[in-house]
Design brief:
With 96 residues, the protein is mostly helical. Helix content is 68%, strand content 0%. The longest helix is centred in the last third of the chain and has 27 residues. The chain is globular.
Length: 96
């Protein structure tokens, strides 16, 4: 249970830090494979992504010094959330 609370706190916090560092929530553009992969990774955080998009956050500022750090926080938060979901699924099935 403690591990779940840590992830419940840490992942949205990472996402919020990424937005605060002026990172970009990438659009799903299939013509650009790396942008599409970044968009899928961003979407992996789930509900915070929906709220950020709904309120107009995540436009990104390419000239900001922290832009790439923000992108990294956003992408890693989404990917780590996907891993947490897969881990929870394995525990529910009794594989762990």
């Amino acid at each position: 249970m403690f591990k779940g609370l840590v992830f419940l706190t840490a992942l949205p916090l990472m996402f919020a830090i990424g937005l605060a560092l002026q990172g970009r929530l990438f659009p799903l553009e299939l013509s650009q494979p790396l942008v599409a992969l970044a968009a899928i990774a961003d979407f992996g955080i789930g509900l915070p992504w929906v709220f950020a998009r709904a309120f107009g956050h995540g436009a990104g500022n390419v000239v900001a010094v922290t832009y790439e750090y923000g992108n990294s926080f956003l992408i890693v938060a989404g990917l780590l959330n996907m891993l947490v979901v897969i881990d929870a699924w394995d525990i529910a099935l009794g594989r762990k």
